[in-house]
Amino acid sequence: MTALGLCGVLLSATACGGSATKPPATTARAADTTTTLDGAVYGQPIVAADTVFAATENDSVYAIVNGDVRWRTHLADPVAGSDLPCGDIDPVGITGRPAYDDATHRLYVVAESAGAHKTLYGLDSGTGAVTLRVPVDPPFSDPPATLQRPALTVRDGRVYAAFGGNYGDCGTYTGALAAVDVSTSAVEWYRASTSGRGGIWAPGAAAEADGLLYYSVGNGDAEPGDAYDYTDSVIALTPDLRRTDFFAPAGWAQDNAADRDLGSMNPALVQGRLVMAGKSGDGYVLDAAHLGGISSAAPAFTGCRAFGPAAVADDVAYLPCANGTMAIRVTAPGAATVLWRTTAPANGPPVVVAGRVWATDWHAGTLYALDPATGNVLAQYGTGPIPHFATPAVGNGVLILGTTAGVETFRLP
């Protein structure tokens, strides 16, 4: 992530932080319910039973039922943006999406606090009581230079938390992934780059298949003439963080030098294949069982600079392209057919529910409902200002969206 990396487009730091203006009321319907919280909600809210859980950049976690706050737990004081060497979030508290463990009914978040130190917290989902605290500062980096942006993943008694840099790629950091054993608080680490940088920062969760976790890695410090450093890649990791496979384009060094890497999108699993696109606009369909290493394979599709997680329905992936959602069909042999590209400026990560593809325009503060067969706009809704990569969550017949002031809910058709 260099100056283009976190936002993926040339925008001011204010715009990157999500402070867009709300469109005129005449252009869109409003939210059905608005719940004001104590800070911006960057991580996608999650839904369990009748409860929405949301975490804020003020280091607070909320449980919300029918628009009302059931409990709030304030974990720490966040870090002022002025205390960091760069970045476009102010303050910085909880940025990544929380994770919920169905087996234990425990909620997990990573909060940033004084000194830019990161801590994994476990909370009782019924009461908000803190039941676990584990420091998770990556050992390869200076704490102020790192950001915990991707969604957390819970699996088999471990919580996985990935780290990249702040907007601007300043300071000394190396991308990393922590695997925290929640019964012992032991932490294992994966170092994403042998040269430095190589942030794991795309805001969605890991893809999972056949016991492996798949992440994308951003640009590293290795450039033309240097040895390959495992950046600009899709990686496959075992639960104990051994890398078993990877994919990188043959032009990885040029990608690194030009900030055109694959690290901006989360790999999407479709029909046993991984769909991947990055900042270059080139898209790939990879065999999850054999990623292929450094590959000269031609892109399966082009024209999608993707940022964040895709949505998948059967054999179709809906991609979060900077110029609007794109739908592609993936066949079992790994071919890709572009079905449509919406003309709406819906650039946020999409979700599919109620016969619609839902995606935000986080520049203008608009939520779009698209026809999954054509990409045509079926409805649009005005939102409050929303953060970058704002991703709707779904549950109990409503769609929930994090904003810079809290959460908004929209009844599904």
DSSP summary, beta strand count: 33
Structural category: mainly beta
Count of helical segments? 2
Looking at the structure, the CATH topology is Methylamine Dehydrogenase, Chain H
Shape: globular
* Biggest sheet descriptor: 5 strands, antiparallel
Cα Rg:
19 Å
Poorly predicted spans: 1-27
Number of domains: 1
Strand content: 35-45%
List the helices and strands and how they pair.
Layout: H1 13-16, E1 33-36, E2 46-48, E3 51-55, E4 60-65, E5 68-74, E6 99-101, E7 106-113, E8 117-124, E9 130-135, E10 146-147, E11 153-155, E12 158-165, E13 176-181, E14 187-191, E15 207-209, E16 212-217, E17 233-237, E18 243-249, H2 252-258, E19 268-270, E20 273-277, E21 283-287, E22 293-295, E23 311-313, E24 316-319, E25 326-330, E26 336-341, E27 351-353, E28 356-361, E29 366-370, E30 377-382, E31 393-395, E32 398-402, E33 406-411
Parallel strand pairs: 18-22
Antiparallel strand pairs: 1-33, 2-3, 3-4, 4-5, 6-7, 7-8, 8-9, 10-12, 11-12, 12-13, 13-14, 15-16, 16-17, 17-18, 19-20, 20-21, 23-24, 24-25, 25-26, 27-28, 28-29, 29-30, 31-32, 32-33
